[in-house]
Amino acid sequence: MNRKLIAGNWKMNGLRADLQTVGDVAAAVSGAAAAPETLLCVPATLLSQAALAAEGSALRIGGQTCHSQQKGAFTGDISAPMLKEAGAAYVIVGHSERRTFHGETDEIVAAQAQSAIGSGLVPIVCVGETPEERSSGQTLTVVAEQLKGSLAGLEPATAFVLAYEPLWAIGTGKVATTAQIAEVHDFVRQFLIGRFGEPGQSVRILYGGSLNPGNAVEILPVSNVDGGLIGGASLKAADFLAIYNTACALQG
Ligand code: PGA
After folding, report:
1. Fewer Cβ atoms within 10 A, N terminus or C terminus of the chain?
2. From the alpha carbon of 233, which atom of ligand 1 is closest?
C-alpha cells in the first residue's frame, strides 16, 4: 500500500490572515511513516509565508501551477525554481481550471511537469473528463489520452503524483460514486504499470472533486485511491484535518 497523500488546493483563495489555517494544520499533523503525508497548495503570494508557518512540521507546501520555462519574458507567470525557492515541495500541473481557463494542453502540462521535476519539485499531474465525455461513455478514452500526453517524456524512476478529478465533481458537491472512482483509478494504475513497469505501482493516485469530511470515509479506502486533492474543504483546518484523520485511521 502506498503512503497516502492528503493535499489541499486553495485555488485563488487566501490572504495573510489565512496563514493561521496553515499553522493549525501544521501543528496537528504527524511526520510518522505510518501517517499520511500532508500538503497545502496555496496561492503563490502566500508560499514563502506558508512555508515559514509550516517549518519544522510534517506539512508540506506546494504551488498550483508553474511555467514550462525556468525564466524569461513571460509576464505574470511563475517558474518552478521560483516556487522551489519560496519553499514549495510540490506543484499541481494540468488542473482542469488551468486547462479550461488558460488553454493548457497535454503538451504544455508535460513540459510543466518536466520543469517541476528538473527544479526538484514533485508535480501532481491532473486528469479528468467533462460531464459530456462521461455521459457519452468516453471517460477512459479521454483519461488515457490525457495520461499519454501529460506524462510524455517522464522517466520511470521520477517522483510524481497523479490526480483524477472528474470535472463534473469539482466544486459542485456532486461526488463520483465509489464504483466510478474505482474504475478510473484501476485503469490509471494499469496505464502507469504499462508505461513505467513496476515503479508504476508506487505512483500515488489521488481522487479530487468535492471530497469532504463526510464522504472521505467511503472514498479513501477505494481500490488504488492513494489520497485526495481537496479544494473547498481544504480552506478550513478542521475540515482538512477531519479528512486527514480518516486517512490516518485507514493507514494505521
Ligand atoms: P473541490 O476541488 O474539492 O472544491 O471540488 C477539488 C480540486 O479542484 O482540486
Report:
1. N
2. 3
Q: Which CATH number fits domain 5-251: 3.20.20.70, 3.40.50.1370, 3.40.50.720, 3.40.50.300?
A: 3.20.20.70
Segment 21-34, tens digit of pLDDT: 999 999 999 999 88
Nearest CA to ligand 1 atom 3: 231
Ligand 1 atom closest to residue 229's alpha carbon, by position in its atom list: 9
Give 175-231 pLDDT, tens digit per residue.
Answer: 999 999 999 999 999 999 999 999 999 999 999 999 999 999 999 999 999 999 999
Pocket test for ligand 1, best of 5, 170, 211 (most atoms within 8 A of CB): 170
Ligand 1 centroid – CA 28 distance (Å): 22
To the query of whether residue 67 is one of the catalytic residues in this protein, the response is no
Residue 165 is among the residues annotated as catalytic for this protein: yes
Indicate if the pLDDT at residue 108 is higher than 80. Answer: yes
- Identify the H or E element spanning 230: strand 227-230
Query: Ligand 1: which residue has its CA nearest to atom 1?
Result: 231
Q: What is the DSSP string of 160-219?
A: -EEEE--GGGTTTS----HHHHHHHHHHHHHHHHHHHSGGGGGSEEEEESS--TTTHHHH
